[in-house]
Amino acid sequence: LPFVIDMILTGYVTIAAIFAVISVSNCANILMVTMGGTKSHKIPFWELARGLIPRGHNITFVSAFPQDFIMDGLEEITPTGLVFYVKNFTNWDLLGARMRGEEPVHPLDMLRYPYEACDILFSDGEMKEFLQSGHAFDLAILDGAFPECALGLIYHFKIPFMYINTVGFYTGSLSTAGNPAPYSVTPFLARPFTDNMNLIERVMNSVWHVSANLMHIVMVRVFLHGVLKKHFGNDIPHPYELSKNVSFILQNAHATITYARPYLPNVAEVACIHCKAPKPLPPV
Ligand SMILES: *[C@@H]1O[C@H](CO)[C@@H](O)[C@H](O)[C@H]1NC(C)=O
Ligand SMILES: *[C@@H]1O[C@H](CO)[C@@H](O)[C@H](O)[C@H]1NC(C)=O
Ligand SMILES: *[C@@H]1O[C@H](CO)[C@@H](O)[C@H](O)[C@H]1NC(C)=O
């Protein structure tokens, strides 16, 4: 009998060892990048990291906002040049502008932020060192709100990538990836329209969408692609071409807080992944 028990135990140990080896070899090195100009962009990334690290994955996270806490398995890279650029650029009062009924960010500033921030990121010594360090990654998770600059890293590391679209109302990268965003029912993110618009509102909404798209195209085609060519060589494809290859999109939205939208099967809505279980109110 002891012999039989021994056999069974050895079997279990072998199976457990095989599973352990499989789970270790399933662990990945993941690169996360947000070029967002406000710290709120980091929050959904942290939540993803909190879920991925206990499963054995290592995360390297590039952003413009220095680390707030130490988490085992999470390495944050915050190139100084970018940190100072964003700090100076965002010396603004978003809420005050809203309350005065003004546009919070001047359109010309919106046009210059992406390519200036991108040039500063890839000119930074720490970033150059990182690119030359021989790091290897299995997957990149980029901020879908402004992925075009970080796509340079995809070209450099030659890795599959996905987005977490931190700005739920932004449909630009969803639409580049093939998801329909008809102007007739997709309210422009900076206007108070809903998906139920009359004819005049639909015309206004289309004008906003078309103007924003034109601005984006000029910014990416004329300026940003040039910045990427300067740092990664003339062969780097156009960011829109790179962007079309996105494997999966986590969309920080939900039909109950944005609008019901048609998505391709590689989009998952994850609104509230950062939400914590509510605590009871303190007794009075
Ligand atoms: C994650 O990092 C730890 C510590 O640096 C290392 O021992 C481990 O091999 C890494 N895991 C992967 C999947 O590379
Ligand atoms: C800070 O921002 C202001 C206004 O945008 C700009 O004129 C100035 O050159 C910036 N300073 C630095 C050090 O980047
Ligand atoms: C997109 O992915 C396909 C298939 O892997 C590849 O052949 C193509 O070169 C990629 N396009 C770009 C612009 O990287």
TrEMBL record:
InterPro entries: UDP-glycosyltransferase, UDP_glucos_trans. The chain crosses the membrane at residues 12-33. Coiled coil: none annotated. The keyword RNA-binding does not apply. Keywords: Glycosyltransferase, Membrane, Transferase, Transmembrane, Transmembrane helix. GO terms for molecular function: UDP-glycosyltransferase activity. It holds the Pfam family UDPGT. SUPFAM superfamilies: UDP-Glycosyltransferase/glycogen phosphorylase. The keyword 4Fe-4S does not apply. Belongs to the UDP-glycosyltransferase family. This is Glucuronosyltransferase. The lineage of its organism: Eukaryota, Metazoa, Ecdysozoa, Arthropoda, Hexapoda.
